[in-house]
Amino acid sequence: MNYPKGVKNNNTENYIKFDNRGMGLESDINLTNQYYVDKKIAYIYKKPTPIQVTKVDYKNNSMIIKEAFFKEPSTTDYNGLYKGMYIDFEAKETTSKTSFPLSNIHKHQISHIKNINDNGGIVFLIVRFVSLNKNFILMGNDFIDFLKNNDRKSIPLNYFEEKGFIVDISYIPRLDYLKVIDKILGGINGK
Question: Torsions phi, psi of 24, nearest 5?
């Protein structure tokens, strides 16, 4: 990197924030979903993880959760309505350049994806290959088909390239995945 006047500024703590590392995809989806809501395109929300609070500390007129546990396994990350159809998806990132580890998806999530798919909902994965700066949509039926026909512990990148669909990053909306869903499904309900 060429620095102005050849001077290197080592004071980077004011410029580099390490908060929410690994949350890039989720942040992009949340911004996109807010755009969809604002424009009345779709109503898709992040599902909260169900927790049971067991210990609370009260300090300075605020409540701090000190102890909690997961009440039940969560399903997928997002769900909502789009053009009168139920939509449900999981968002995952991987730093691998060659595959997506299946250990990132739990059995109850796989079962949920299969159930939504079998009942006619729109269900898919959005997977970001961070090192490659690529985002893919893999439809639920292609995901389930891969699991049925492979004993691998990961989905290779070439499967995403063959069966998946690229979702480009843009300014607004940040990750317009519904534009891709429309192309995949050929428009939903003719709308």
Answer: -60, -50
* Residue 144 Rama label (left phi>0; alpha psi -120 to 50; beta): alpha
Computed on alpha carbons and rounded to an integer, the radius of gyration of the chain in Å comes to 20
Closest CA to 163 of 108, 105, 100, 111: 100
At residue 187, the pLDDT reads 61
Distance from C-alpha of 69 to C-alpha of 50, rounded to nearest angstrom: 9
Work out the pLDDT band at 76, boundaries 50, 70, 90.
Answer: confident
CATH 1.10.8.60 fits 20-47+73-185, yes or no: no
- pTM summary value: 0.77
* Nearest-5° Cα angle at 140, 133 to 182: 70
The Cβ of residue 67 has, within 10 Å, a number of other Cβ atoms equal to: 10
Task: With beta carbons less than 8 A apart as the criterion, state whether 153 and 101 touch.
Answer: yes
Burial bucket for residue 64 (CB in 10 Å: 0-12, 13-18, 19+): exposed
Q: Please provide the DSSP assignment of 106-153 as one string.
A: -HHHHHHHHHHHHTT-EEEEEEEEGGGTEEEEEEHHHHHHHHHH---S
Domain ranges of the chain: 20-47+73-185
**Nearest by Cα to 97 from 52, 73, 127, 121:** 127
| C-alpha 150 chain-centroid distance | 23
